[in-house]
Structure formats: C-alpha cells, structure tokens
Amino acid sequence: xxxxxxxxxxxxxxxxxxxxxxxxxxxxxxxxxxxxxxxxxxxxxxxxxxxxxxxxxxxxxxxxxxxxxxxxxxxxxxxxxxxxxxxxxxxxxxxxxxxxxxxxxxxxxxxxxxxxxxxxxxxxxxxxxxxxxxxxxxxxxxxxxxxxxxxxxxxxxxxxxxxxxxxxxxxxxxxxxxxxxxxxxxxxxxxxxxxxxxxxxxxxxxxxxxxxxxxxxxxxxxxxxxxxxxxxxxxxxxxxxxxxxxxxxxxxxxxxxxxxxxxxxxxxxxxxxxxxxxxx
Length: 280
Ligand SMILES: [Zn+2]
Prior knowledge:
The chain contains nine helices and eleven strands. It is of the alpha/beta class. The model has no long low-confidence stretch (mean pLDDT 93). Bound molecules: zinc ion (ZN).
C-alpha cells in the first residue's frame, strides 16, 4: 500500500466512522424545564425538540448559531407545547432546515396552541406573552423506523405512544444515545392524561431498551445525560402505574402507590393533573 493511498484510506474511514455528538440542552426556566438535544456532525446539525417559550427557543438558537454549522433538520418528538412551540423562531433563523415530526403532528399542534397555550402561560416567566401565538403547520411526516442523516450518519426514529398518543424517540447509533422526548423520564413522574394505552407506551420503551443505550436524553430530568439505566426504571414505573390504575382508578390511590414506591421522584402533582384532563 503506498503512503498516499494509506493516508486517503485513513481519512475516508474516519469520515465514515465519525461519531455524532449529542448535547443534552437544558432550559433554564419552568414550569416544565424541557430538554432539547443537539446532534452534531463535522459540518451539520440536527435539533430534537425546540422548547416552549420564546425566550428558551431564542437561547437554544443562540447556542446552535455559535457552533457555525448547517442546521439540516429539526425534529419534534411529539406535539406537546413544551417540545414544538418554539418552531417558528427556528424557521426564521434556519430557513434551509427541514422540519419533521410524526403523522398527525400539524393538526395536533394547532389544537394544543388553541387549548393549552393560555393555561400553560400561567407558570411561564413572562406569562402567555412569552408563548408563541401561532401554531406551526409545516412539519413533514416521518414514519416509524425512518432514518434521517447528519453528515452521512444515521439517526433513527421509532414511533409509538409516550405521554402523548403521537410520540416518538430518536436513536443515534454512533453515540449510543436515545433522545427520549416524553417517552422516558428521569426520576420524574410522567404525565398520563392524554391516553390510556399504557401497554403501547411500554412497547416503545422496550424498543429503546433493546438498543442498550449508554446515554438517554430525557426531556424531563433534573440532570443532563443520564445513563441508560433510566430505561429500565421507566419500564418499571409504567408497570406500577398500570397495576395501580387496575386496582383503584382514582388519582388519590394511584398517587399514594407511586409516591410510596418512588418517594424522591419529582412532579408528584402530575397524578391529580393527569386524571383532571384525562380523555375518557
Ligand atoms: Zn414534555
């Protein structure tokens, strides 16, 4: 093998095997403190979930701009306000980026802005004025198992149910990282008021578990980059939730069972809230 060929071969194989870097991006303000993720290749970037308030969307945009790379796409894991509402600002700053989410997301985003923007504004710094007025309606549909690319590397989408019936997770094989949206939480009691199909939710968490991720970016977590062990914890929590609901389907009982078993987990108000908005 001549020297030039060898150098070329090494250079090419580094390009092919180049790992994507995933940054767990934490918002600074409540009430929900959602996390986003920045997936970075050598020259391209993908962003997963785009924050709820205008101020947090702008902070995330500022951090992405300072990387000086091309934003190729923006992916929203599910149509809850704390994950998609900042999208319109990303469209202004990254006009060439494609916007993706799962089937039915555009319609659901319109519904969420109409019905939940004002109630959620109450806990947001700056109130409803800090929440986008217009729902985005330009998301392209990505199907289950579809692959998006960053610098030629795969980023896989698994669709199913999480805390919203139209949910998904993102698998970045080269970084052994799952970006879990609101399918896997980290030591936080999950919202479960939007559907009753806990079995389908468990199925999607099991698909994450099969990948044996080293890191899971959870959208609701007190810390950044929790280890893959939170996948098993979420599975157990969901099984415990299903069991308690089967025994006595009231928020008081379910809350007492789950907080007994998970006394240090955050958001224990979510049981009453979930039952309050539950679609019968
Ligand atoms: Zn969320």
